[in-house]
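Example 3.2
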Amino acid sequence: MVAVPAKTIYLLDTNVLIGLSLWKPMSLQLNDIFWAEFTKALEQGNWILLDVVADEVKFDAELIAWCKEQKKNKLITELDDDSRDRAVEINKLYPMIDQTTFKSEVDTFIIAYAEANSFGIFSRESPRVGGVGLYKIPDVCDVLHIKRLSKPKAFLKEIGFN
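Structure, written as tokens:
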């Protein structure tokens, strides 16, 4: 008997959620069918929306409303204290957070939660260039052996879109 590999559940980086909303063919305003299926995949547990990601969405009224709807429907997962503590450790080992703007703080939470739950991460972030500067999601995922995707087509296939 051949073992079937376990299906990976993915966490989304905020840049993906915003990107989907802003990309005209997939925008909330123009593509009700896509967003209905995307929400259905969330309901089915094929991907996870963390509260810290939903809270990071700013300046897009439709996407903010969509996130609030997911929260109302109890489809947003709250980050636990263990993951918050681990995020601090991750940032100490692999500095990701800009200490002036605190940009990328949510990235550490996503990584910590994915690591603790054996989830993957879908992010459009690129790795550091030349190994210089703050660590990025792909860099830390590689070090911690967290599965990651960067291509929307691969992610959509993973969560059941054809």
